[in-house]
Amino acid sequence: MKALTFQGPRSVRLDEVAKPSLNGPDDALVRVTTGAICGSDLHLYHERVPIQPGAVLGHEFVGVVEEVGAHVSRVKPGDRVVACFFTYCGRCHYCRRGWFSQCEKKAVFGYGEHFGNLGGGQAEYCIAPSADQTLERIPDAVSDEQALFVGDILATGYFGAERAGIEAGDSVAVIGCGPVGLMAIMCARLLGAARILAVDMVPSRLEMAERLGAVAIDGRSVHSSEAVKAETGGHGVDRAIEAVGLTATIETAIHSVRRGGTVSVVGVPDTTSGEFPYMKLWWDDITYTGGVCNVPAYMRRLLDLIEAGRLDPAQIVSHRMKLEEGVRAYEMFDRREATKILLTP
Ligand SMILES: [Zn+2]
Ligand SMILES: [Zn+2]
């Protein structure tokens, strides 16, 4: 089968690799109909996360079930499904408490040997382990393109907005308007935010944020947190969602909220430790939360919201390309020339 594989720093390749087959009774074989490139794929592309050359990339995909193992009962051949970006067992200490993203057997699709060594979805076929957990059936009224988002970035945007504690009438700042930030804007609106301020430095992303109903703040021309404060009577927003992961953007989020506000970080931190404004958080009664999205807890309800017409994540798709164009797609996405790229085999 055709697949995009990692080759080295800033190097991916369209390869012909063996079609994967079921490894156990809990697996399903999925024929991928649409995959996507995610911002976190760039961590691999830039070797910030190690992955072995030749590994098949991609953790955002939808497809049709082609074959299932003997223990799989929730999906069957012919079902259209979306995959959670990671697999989880459903039985361990954390899964039994509903915190699937901390599963003791968690593995991430297309993310290398440190994350379970699973094949990825930027390919014609992919094996979904623990298929009853990992895969969710797609309602007829929801397109493949829409469904693809619930397995990672829409869930992450919703998780960020929910953990920010957004209530009707709140003002919200979204720091970073890449795909996850744009999802967070949609979800903040859904949860009742009255005003959403969108901070970024890429014009196309700010334009999309405005189209989604946010007020754009261009960090190239203003001091971001001061601009947020100026827009909120000098106080700062009720809630800030950070969707980048840089120390500087996390600080912008902290300095953008009012006293007693909430900062919710979903951006993958680019550093393991560093200075942190402990005193400000304490003195200003700021609630700080962050973490890996517990995706499976949200997939079903997000599909229902899309089906009901309350969310349309596919509107951020900027490029639809063939898997064969994957090398160019990675280059474009890396240069921020594309907001969201879908790849079809
Ligand atoms: Zn992702
Ligand atoms: Zn588990």
Describe, in short, the structure shown.
The chain has helices at 41-45, 93-96, 131-134, 144-148, 153-163, 179-190, 203-211, 224-231, 247-256, 278-283, 296-307, 326-334, and strands spanning 2-8, 11-16, 28-36, 60-68, 80-83, 86-87, 107-108, 125-128, 135-137, 171-175, 195-200, 215-218, 237-242, 257-265, 287-290, 319-322, 341-344. It has 345 residues and is of the alpha/beta class.
Characterization of the model:
- There is one protein chain.
- The chain has 345 residues and is of the alpha/beta class.
- It has 2 domains: 2-152 and 294-344, Medium-chain alcohol dehydrogenases, catalytic domain (Quinone Oxidoreductase, Chain A, domain 1, Alpha-Beta Complex), CATH 3.90.180.10; 157-290, Rossmann fold (3-Layer(aba) Sandwich), CATH 3.40.50.720.
- Helix content is 28%, strand content 26%.
- It is built from 12 helices and 17 strands.
- The strands form 4 sheets. Strands 3, 4, 5, 8, 9, 16 and 17 form a 7-stranded mixed beta sheet that branches. Strands 12-11-10-13-14-15 form a 6-stranded parallel beta sheet, sandwiched between helices.
- Strand 10, helix 6 and strand 11 form a beta-alpha-beta unit.
- The radius of gyration is 20 Å and the shape is globular.
- The relative contact order is 0.15.
- One zinc ion (ZN) binds at residues 88-89, 91-92, 94-95, 103-105.
